[in-house]
């Protein structure tokens, strides 16, 4: 019976409308997966020595301390990235399959998920190093068994959590607070959790606890999945009651306001669009890696500009790259209405400008690291508004992948827009400001570097009309292809 | 009002539309019937410049639709759900279309109040996004949105499908009222022969992309059509 499911999966992959871009993306993702696996393996092998010789701590105890964070981050990552085990269930319901079979297949698929396997790449090398350093084999194996159980516990917990909308943010929030308290030595959660993980190693019967938990989670998620296999339960689309919004205050933007109002509703009301806002918030913190000097390679002055571009441009980069795909589900409507492309584009442009300004203001927290850092951010913001906002829209004109606004799970990869044109256009976004800064920095002084980037940003405004005209021409010449491409929903 | 010249559309060697000449007069109410795959939606899509014909062109009010965009301000259409913006409420959608067509809120409200019967209390003030409405109710929204801003050409693809009997009867009245206006040209396609013969002055039958019948509606039309499709 499983044979049928596998055949269906196989066909749905090879016959999907967006196979070519999908395949390319999958290769790309595959490359990253390999890279992450490789880095984890190296990390797992090296960390023992690192903790022992650099920090002069007991390696296993130290790892045990941080395992609680490891697990919670794993859960948050899964929630954001791991796709739910959905096979095309609706047409199967009427066929003579047992519901348990359908669910077991869906669950079975998750067992081999990258998110489960990746942990092995870290813990197996680490365990080998442990054993070679004279740790007893049995205990290390028990410890691993416990961890495997916990990882799979996360796997099934994620399936349960995915149905609840905001629970994960609460969990993530609590962990950030606990992490902060830990960092500033107010309260240390690990003193309570570390003995448990240590117990997995020390005490043989401890391993039963995670196994029981995992089996319990499996049972709960399995039951709830089976129970929800009804059109009006798990397979139903949720409809919340909502109210009509005015947003009349935006009318001061003139004709652009018509679209701007729509775009704001688009972001507020669609999961997929909301997640770009989340991404831009995450990028706000991206600069911490650079400006705190935590990562050795990022200490070079040129990397400061790189970081600053991301800090202020998170929304610009993640939202802008999918213009006009955000409107893909009603593109024929837009194309048969009396719309000036320029007004449509400038509403998107304003949206990105406003978001960049907000990010810049929020990024004032970086003042903590000195005026210099914030100056880099201001300059990058100028470059983002002046140059990147245009480049991003330009690159977006070549993107022809439809976006399913209501689903969040494809926000990262899969059908992502990925072609050589957009790749080429991503160069000026990142590399150009870094090069400009480097020229100014090494030729004269850091301030000359900032000045060069800022001038490029200001000069970008001069090209706004030219770029918009160019995009308009692309839109026109690609119109029929775009409409046809947007029609092909996966 | 609308003239089709030597229009063909071919997909990988498969001709789905082939119309040498077709002219639709201003103020006419024009019905398009045909089995699945006859090319009805393709013709409408070409008319809206949503697909690029392989040869030939269509003129709307004297403008070649693929060259100029000036026909857009006088043309409105509802083809399928891709003409709806799923994350808006019905009101927001109507106001959005209104703004695009130069109508303020009061204008739109004025128009909507004429169609309260048609909405049957299931559209306005529903606290639901369009994507959460039933297929029939979505269709009601799309049809009425196509009437905003007094367009001169109105194109409705299968407007009767998915509607309940009461709404079908009301829609027939709406289309007849529109057709009575000599300024307005209505184009409707349908699988329901009875409905089309009732609301359209002229009916064209498409078969495999070609015009096989062109009838001015009379008492016998329904019989004639039934005979044609009962082959």
TrEMBL record, chain A:
<feature type="transmembrane region" description="Helical">
    <location>
        <begin position="102"/>
        <end position="128"/>
    </location>
</feature>
<feature type="transmembrane region" description="Helical">
    <location>
        <begin position="450"/>
        <end position="468"/>
    </location>
</feature>
<feature type="transmembrane region" description="Helical">
    <location>
        <begin position="375"/>
        <end position="401"/>
    </location>
</feature>
<dbReference type="InterPro" id="IPR043742">
    <property type="entry name" value="DUF5687"/>
</dbReference>
<feature type="transmembrane region" description="Helical">
    <location>
        <begin position="305"/>
        <end position="328"/>
    </location>
</feature>
<feature type="transmembrane region" description="Helical">
    <location>
        <begin position="134"/>
        <end position="154"/>
    </location>
</feature>
<feature type="transmembrane region" description="Helical">
    <location>
        <begin position="204"/>
        <end position="222"/>
    </location>
</feature>
<keyword id="KW-0812">Transmembrane</keyword>
<dbReference type="Pfam" id="PF18940">
    <property type="entry name" value="DUF5687"/>
</dbReference>
<keyword id="KW-1133">Transmembrane helix</keyword>
<keyword id="KW-0472">Membrane</keyword>
<feature type="transmembrane region" description="Helical">
    <location>
        <begin position="275"/>
        <end position="293"/>
    </location>
</feature>
<feature type="transmembrane region" description="Helical">
    <location>
        <begin position="63"/>
        <end position="81"/>
    </location>
</feature>
<feature type="transmembrane region" description="Helical">
    <location>
        <begin position="27"/>
        <end position="51"/>
    </location>
</feature>
<feature type="transmembrane region" description="Helical">
    <location>
        <begin position="166"/>
        <end position="184"/>
    </location>
</feature>
<feature type="transmembrane region" description="Helical">
    <location>
        <begin position="349"/>
        <end position="369"/>
    </location>
</feature>
<feature type="transmembrane region" description="Helical">
    <location>
        <begin position="422"/>
        <end position="444"/>
    </location>
</feature>
<protein>
    <submittedName>
        <fullName>Uncharacterized protein</fullName>
    </submittedName>
</protein>
Automatic annotation (TrEMBL), chain B:
<dbReference type="InterPro" id="IPR003593">
    <property type="entry name" value="AAA+_ATPase"/>
</dbReference>
<dbReference type="InterPro" id="IPR051782">
    <property type="entry name" value="ABC_Transporter_VariousFunc"/>
</dbReference>
<keyword id="KW-0067">ATP-binding</keyword>
<dbReference type="GO" id="GO:0005524">
    <property type="term" value="F:ATP binding"/>
</dbReference>
<feature type="domain" description="ABC transporter">
    <location>
        <begin position="2"/>
        <end position="230"/>
    </location>
</feature>
<dbReference type="Pfam" id="PF00005">
    <property type="entry name" value="ABC_tran"/>
</dbReference>
<dbReference type="InterPro" id="IPR003439">
    <property type="entry name" value="ABC_transporter-like_ATP-bd"/>
</dbReference>
<dbReference type="GO" id="GO:0016887">
    <property type="term" value="F:ATP hydrolysis activity"/>
</dbReference>
<dbReference type="InterPro" id="IPR017871">
    <property type="entry name" value="ABC_transporter-like_CS"/>
</dbReference>
<keyword id="KW-0547">Nucleotide-binding</keyword>
<keyword id="KW-0813">Transport</keyword>
<dbReference type="InterPro" id="IPR027417">
    <property type="entry name" value="P-loop_NTPase"/>
</dbReference>
<protein>
    <submittedName>
        <fullName>ATP-binding protein</fullName>
    </submittedName>
</protein>
């Amino acid at each position: 019976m499983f044979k049928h499911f596998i055949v269906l999966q196989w066909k749905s992959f090879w016959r999907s409308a967006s196979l070519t871009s999908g395949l390319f993306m999958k290769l790309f993702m595959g490359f990253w997966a390999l890279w992450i696996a490789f880095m984890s393996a190296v990390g797992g092998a090296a960390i023992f020595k690192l903790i022992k010789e650099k920090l002069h701590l007991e390696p296993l105890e130290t790892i045990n301390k941080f395992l609680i964070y490891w697990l919670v981050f794993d859960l948050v990552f899964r929630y954001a990235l791991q796709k739910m085990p959905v096979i095309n269930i609706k047409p199967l319901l009427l066929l003579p399959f047992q519901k348990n079979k359908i669910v077991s297949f869906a669950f079975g698929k998750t067992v081999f998920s990258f998110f489960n396997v990746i942990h092995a790449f870290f813990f197996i090398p680490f365990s080998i190093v442990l054993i070679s350093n004279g740790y007893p084999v049995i205990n290390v194996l028990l410890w691993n068994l416990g961890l495997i159980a916990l990882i799979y516990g996360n796997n099934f917990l994620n399936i349960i959590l995915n149905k609840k909308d905001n629970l994960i943010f609460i969990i993530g929030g609590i962990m950030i607070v606990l992490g902060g308290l830990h960092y500033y030595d107010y309260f240390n959660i690990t003193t309570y959790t570390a003995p448990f993980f240590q117990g997995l190693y020390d005490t043989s019967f401890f391993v039963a606890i995670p196994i029981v938990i995992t089996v319990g989670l499996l049972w709960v998620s399995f039951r709830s999945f089976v129970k929800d296999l009804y059109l009006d339960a798990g397979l139903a689309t949720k409809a919340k009651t909502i109210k009509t919004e005015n947003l009349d205050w935006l009318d001061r933007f003139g004709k652009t306001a018509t679209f701007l109002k729509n775009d704001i509703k688009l972001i507020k009301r669609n999961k997929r669009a909301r997640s770009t806002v989340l991404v831009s918030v995450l990028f706000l913190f991206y600069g911490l890696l650079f400006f705190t000097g935590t990562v050795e390679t990022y200490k070079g002055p040129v990397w400061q500009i790189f970081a600053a571009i991301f800090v202020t441009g998170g929304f610009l980069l993640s939202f802008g790259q999918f213009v006009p795909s955000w409107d893909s589900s009603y593109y024929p409507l837009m194309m048969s209405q009396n719309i000036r492309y320029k007004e449509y584009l400038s509403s998107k442009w304003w949206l990105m400008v406003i978001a960049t300004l907000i990010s810049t203001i929020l990024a004032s927290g970086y003042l903590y690291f000195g005026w210099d850092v914030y100056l880099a951010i201001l300059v990058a913001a100028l470059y983002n508004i002046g140059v990147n906002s245009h480049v991003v829209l330009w690159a977006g004109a070549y993107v022809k992948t439809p976006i399913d606004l209501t689903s969040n799970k494809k926000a990262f990869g899969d059908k992502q827009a990925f072609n050589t044109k957009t790749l080429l256009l991503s160069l000026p976004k990142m590399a150009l400001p870094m090069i400009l800064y480097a020229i100014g920095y090494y030729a004269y002084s850091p301030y000359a570097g900032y000045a060069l980037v800022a001038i490029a940003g200001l000069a970008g405004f001069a090209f706004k009309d030219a770029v918009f005209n160019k995009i308009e021409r692309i839109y026109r010449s690609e119109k029929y292809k775009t409409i046809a491409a947007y029609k092909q929903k996966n | 009002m609308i003239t089709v010249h030597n229009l063909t559309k071919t997909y990988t060697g498969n001709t789905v539309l082939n119309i040498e000449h077709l002219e639709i007069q201003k103020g006419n109410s024009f019905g398009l019937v045909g089995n699945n795959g006859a090319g009805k939606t393709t013709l409408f899509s070409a008319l809206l410049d949503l697909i690029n014909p392989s040869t030939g062109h269509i003129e709307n009010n004297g403008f070649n639709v693929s060259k100029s965009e000036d026909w857009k301000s006088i043309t409105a259409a509802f083809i399928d759900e891709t003409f709806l913006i799923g994350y808006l409420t019905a009101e927001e959608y109507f106001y959005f279309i209104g703004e695009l067509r130069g109508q303020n809120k009061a204008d739109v409200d004025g128009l909507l109040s004429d169609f309260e019967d048609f909405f049957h209390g299931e559209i306005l003030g529903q606290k639901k996004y369009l994507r959460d409405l039933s297929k029939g109710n979505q269709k009601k929204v799309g049809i009425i949105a196509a009437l905003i801003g007094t367009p001169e050409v109105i194109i409705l693809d299968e407007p009767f499908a998915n509607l309940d009997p009461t709404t079908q009867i009301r829609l027939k009245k709406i289309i007849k009222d529109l057709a009575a206006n000599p300024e307005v040209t209505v184009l409707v396609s349908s699988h329901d022969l009875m409905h089309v013969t009732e609301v359209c002055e002229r009916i064209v039958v498409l078969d495999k992309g070609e015009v096989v019948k062109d009838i001015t509606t009379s008492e016998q039309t329904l019989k004639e059509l039934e005979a044609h499709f009962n082959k």
